[in-house]
């Protein structure tokens, strides 16, 4: 057996209210990049479904920027470390790793000769530092600020200058090398959140939480004028220059973005992105002919200069850990639910995505299952909900659980929900059976014929198998494991039940033989807790995902053979796994990424 990664549908940028994020752009105009968790995500700007993910940071990443040559990327994290790695090789070979200061790095910039890097942020002893990209030696101090530095930029032309924006409401200029404080600009009345030089280096712009944007002469540091005024009714989170330097793109907390004519200092276009708090715009990037903005939701919008009322496209997905997944019966759609209660629909194989509309869960989506025309979901808001797959919208159907639901399963007619302290069987739109239980359920699986339901427990470490009758659940078998049961799944044929636990063990049971073990040995090749299981449609293979970041494909006909997909989601546990067909597996992780795998037998 062998495998290959068919596609990766990446996480969105991780956002936080009141905090700008930084988008980086390839100097050749081909890619853009951003960070989430331990990862740097590189996406093709014309075909964003094509992406690459760098996963070598040991702590949360904060910002990444291409070098002017385009051959290297410098990425930074909350510990104050930066890693410089190449963009040419698929392995992204590490060139250098330095620690300019200890603390959260909020922004960084390269000098135009690729030789120097300036980093700024929340350092314990300093808020910024300039180092040599080859040796890590100091080439200047970033002093003169009394608050955290939020933004920094290198002048793209000589003489070299560094521009910073800080929470002390000032923008500072540093001359060098070696770089030393020159002067402060004090026109803003609130935090300065974004500072950027124009491409020709003759001007620079500063944007702040006072909603104002100022344009300055880069040689004399004199104020040329203010855009607006004011530019926005809410705080300005980011500014980005057009390639020719004649216009400026701004993103604001007032839920809008604007294009400004720098010469007249007037708005050319205004993009109203919505009315919800998640429509606040926290970043922007003008990359060639593409204008990108990022909302607080994490959605990436491609703006249309010719039609400000509607974006050209919007990249959606998740930026919080994915906790639930299901594949539609026609195998053309994948549904994923996340920690924040949202559900996203993905199209196979294009990767096109959209967020499911309607009243979603108000907290974590715990599990989901599909029938021919709908998706059933359960969440930590103690409700079961239904999505109409024809319009990918929540139906006006909500059932409150007796206790917090932990898993949901269906045979197409019945729906079984395992709650914290009960098992519920739903038929049609109402509860048919509610069985109180003395143990704490963790997962559930309904037999394909609806005749049995298996419930895994995380309190007594047992699998409880029940026969489903018209009026009650009759317990037929109790199977003991050494650790908490994490998942149970009946095979599509209905002859086997697979169960996994926190002690790395996976075991198959024969349904016809009163749930006796199907083999005289267990599958224990994972190195940490097994989180999830999924059967191939032909019932010949079982896939498992684990805390150890790996996926294993097991053969039922040849139990001694298996295929290990090591580090399927680097630095992230596998949260859910499913088969699209007998040769394609889809997996989700704590990293918010969705990955498709080709399996060859």
Topology:
Layout: E1 2-9, E2 24-25, E3 31-36, E4 39-44, E5 51-54, E6 61-66, E7 72-77, E8 82-86, E9 94-98, E10 103-110, E11 116-123, E12 128-132, E13 138-141, E14 149-154, E15 161-166, E16 171-175, E17 180-185, E18 192-197, E19 203-208, E20 213-217, E21 223-227, E22 236-241, E23 247-252, E24 256-261, E25 266-272, E26 281-287, E27 290-295, E28 300-302, E29 313-315, E30 322-327, E31 333-338, E32 343-347, E33 353-355, E34 365-370, E35 374-379, E36 383-388, E37 393-400, E38 405-410, E39 414-419, E40 422-427, E41 430-436, E42 441-446, E43 452-457, E44 462-468, E45 473-480, E46 485-490, E47 496-501, E48 506-510, E49 516-517, E50 530-535, E51 541-546, E52 551-555, E53 562-565, E54 574-581, E55 584-589, E56 594-600
Antiparallel strand pairs: 1-56, 2-3, 3-4, 4-5, 6-7, 7-8, 8-9, 10-11, 11-12, 12-13, 14-15, 15-16, 16-17, 18-19, 19-20, 20-21, 22-23, 23-24, 24-25, 26-27, 27-28, 28-29, 30-31, 31-32, 32-33, 34-35, 35-36, 36-37, 38-39, 39-40, 40-41, 42-43, 43-44, 44-45, 46-47, 47-48, 48-49, 50-51, 51-52, 52-53, ...
């Amino acid at each position: 057996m062998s495998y290959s990664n068919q596609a990766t549908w990446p996480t969105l940028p991780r956002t936080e209210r009141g905090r700008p994020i930084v988008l980086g752009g390839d100097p050749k105009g081909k890619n853009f990049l951003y960070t989430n968790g331990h990862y740097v995500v590189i996406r093709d700007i014309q075909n964003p479904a094509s992406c690459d993910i760098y996963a070598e940071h040991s702590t949360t990443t904060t910002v990444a920027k291409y070098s002017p040559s385009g051959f290297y990327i410098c990425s930074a994290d909350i510990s104050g470390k930066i890693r410089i790695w190449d963009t040419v090789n698929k392995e992204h070979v590490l060139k250098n790793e330095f620690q300019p200061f200890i603390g959260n790095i909020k922004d960084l910039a390269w000098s135009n000769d690729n030789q120097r890097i300036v980093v700024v942020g929340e350092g314990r002893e300093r808020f910024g530092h300039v180092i040599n990209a080859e040796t890590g030696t100091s080439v200047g101090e970033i002093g003169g600020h009394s608050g955290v530095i939020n933004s920094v930029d290198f002048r793209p032309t000589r003489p070299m200058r560094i521009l910073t924006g800080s929470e002390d409401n000032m923008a500072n200029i540093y001359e060098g090398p070696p770089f030393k404080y020159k002067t402060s600009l004090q026109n803003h009345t609130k935090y300065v959140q974004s500072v950027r030089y124009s491409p020709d280096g003759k001007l620079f712009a500063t944007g702040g939480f006072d909603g104002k944007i100022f344009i300055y002469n880069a040689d004399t540091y004199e104020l040329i004028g203010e855009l607006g005024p004011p530019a926005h009714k809410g705080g300005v989170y980011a500014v980005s220059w057009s390639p020719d330097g004649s216009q400026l793109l701004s993103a604001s907390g007032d839920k809008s973005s604007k294009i400004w004519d720098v010469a007249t200092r007037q708005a050319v276009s205004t993009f109203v992105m919505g009315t919800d708090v998640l429509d606040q715009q926290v970043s922007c990037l003008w990359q060639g002919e593409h204008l990108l903005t990022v909302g607080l939701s994490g959605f990436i919008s491609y703006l249309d200069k010719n039609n400000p009322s509607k974006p050209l496209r919007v990249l959606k997905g998740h930026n919080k850990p994915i906790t639930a997944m299901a594949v539609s019966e026609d195998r053309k759609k994948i549904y994923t639910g996340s920690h924040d209660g949202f559900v996203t629909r993905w199209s196979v194989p294009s990767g096109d995505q959209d967020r499911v509309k309607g009243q979603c869960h108000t907290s974590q989506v715990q599990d989901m299952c599909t029938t021919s025309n709908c998706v059933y979901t359960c969440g930590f808001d103690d409700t079961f909900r239904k999505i109409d797959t024809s319009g990918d919208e929540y139906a006006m159907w909500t059932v409150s659980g007796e206790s917090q639901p932990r898993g949901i399963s269906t045979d197409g007619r019945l729906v079984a929900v395992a709650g914290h302290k009960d098992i519920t069987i739903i038929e049609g739109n109402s509860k048919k059976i509610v069985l109180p239980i003395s143990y704490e359920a963790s997962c559930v699986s309904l037999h394909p014929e609806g005749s049995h339901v298996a419930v895994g427990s995380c309190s007594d470490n047992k699998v409880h198998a029940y026969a489903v009758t018209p009026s009650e659940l009759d317990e037929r078998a109790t199977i003991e494991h050494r650790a908490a049961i994490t998942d149970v799944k009946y095979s599509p044929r209905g002859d086997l039940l697979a169960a996994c636990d926190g002690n790395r063990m996976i075991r198959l049971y024969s349904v016809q033989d009163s749930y006796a073990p199907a083999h005289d040995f267990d599958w224990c090749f994972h190195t940490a807790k097994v989180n999830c299981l999924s059967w191939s449609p032909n019932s010949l293979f079982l896939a498992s995902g684990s805390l150890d970041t790996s996926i294993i494909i097991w053969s039922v006909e040849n139990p001694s053979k298996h295929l290990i997909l090591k580090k399927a989601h680097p630095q992230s546990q596998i949260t859910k796994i499913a088969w699209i067909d007998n040769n394609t597996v889809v997996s989700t992780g704590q990293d918010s990424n969705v990955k498709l795998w080709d399996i060859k037998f």
